[in-house]
Amino acid sequence: MFQTVNFCGASGQSYQFQRVKTDSETVVSMPGIIIFAASDGRVIKLAEQVGRAEDLGAIWRWREARRYGATQMFVRRHRHAQVRQAEIEDLELGLNPVCESDRPAFEGVMQGYEEVLAVAA
């Protein structure tokens, strides 16, 4: 059974997340919001998951978060992108993550892909 944890946004709204195993390959295919946290409870990174198997950005987000001390992953599943974006903004303001989230997940993947192509050329 997954452990559930609530994180609070700046608005006072409480959002329920499920803790997932860090070696779980299914995390990439879960649309929603992901929080990477350190063992002391610090929120390292907050990001959007689009829920596509080809979202390589999810792997890179986890690697970056680990560099800053993340040891745990929490997922809030949600299919609607507009709702996810509003929740991310509220959570960022309330949690003050170590690493700021960037663009929506799909844009991040495309930019990374374009940068790899430029370097490879």
Task: Give your account of this protein's structure.
This protein is of the alpha+beta class and 121 residues long. The protein has one domain (4-120). The chain is built from 3 helices and 5 strands, in the order ββββαβαα. It has a 5-stranded antiparallel beta sheet with strand order 1-2-5-3-4, with helices on both faces. The longest helix is centred in the C-terminal third of the chain and has 16 residues, at 105-120. The radius of gyration is 14 Å and the shape is globular.
Strand content: 25-35%
Q: What is the terminal-to-terminal distance?
A: 47 Å
Helicity level: 25-40%
Overall 3D shape: globular
Low-confidence stretches: 103-121
- The secondary-structure class comes to alpha+beta
Query: What value does the Rg take, in angstroms?
Result: 14 Å
What is this structure, in a nutshell?
The chain is α+β, with helices and mostly antiparallel strands. The protein has one domain. 35% of the residues lie in helices and 26% in strands.
How are the elements arranged and paired?
Elements: E1 4-8, E2 14-20, E3 32-37, E4 43-49, H1 57-67, E5 72-77, H2 81-95, H3 105-120
Antiparallel strand pairs: 1-2, 2-5, 3-4, 3-5
